[in-house]
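Batch manifest, entry 17 of 40.
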Amino acid sequence: NVLVGAEGKYSNIADILDIEVYLYNLRDIYNPPLIIAKNYTLLGIKPSLHIKDLTASVEFVKPFSGDGVFSNDIKSYDTILLKIDAAYNIKNINLTPRATFFMAGGKDKGVVTAGNYVPGLVGCPTITQNDDGFVGYANTIITNVGADYTYKKAVFSIDFLNYGLVSASNGSKYGISEIDISAAYEYDENISLFAGVGEAFGTDGYNQDVKFGSYASIQAGVTYKF
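Output type: structure tokens
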């Protein structure tokens, strides 16, 4: 596989706006079940707004897959990816409420990226990952509402995620939600700690109710920067 790409960013337009544009192309990619094509191209644009303590961004990505760089020969990749983020920093109480809306692919259509947006400790059932680090989104809808509370070097977070009511290829429907509680601590400039617990509930891809504790996750880790 050969990856080529370019990125450009224009910052502080009128002191409130940044615009980022990028183009990536994977050449001679044979990576089932995610991509089988001579070219797989991602064209993206991301404007970001920052007004005082408010930040917001919209990222739009169009994939192309086929013989040419901008061809749509493989119709299962003729779709879009959309990600909307917003956050407001309430400095006097060290609290940052935030929200994300993410949509990628459609029924029998998918998007593959290296952006690796994989939220939640349990995770979205319509997301796949392969050994090369690529992430595939098929008929994926994610809404995330959460908040971060900062106390000295520690950040405490709570997140509610909904993975949408989407139809699987077998005709069943997903309707899973998730709630996560986590904490991160920056011990020093090289070492950081993380721990969290997540619980999912709703309806899985077999139209079965997800019972409490059946889709749960506990994570903990240490990151060291060299």
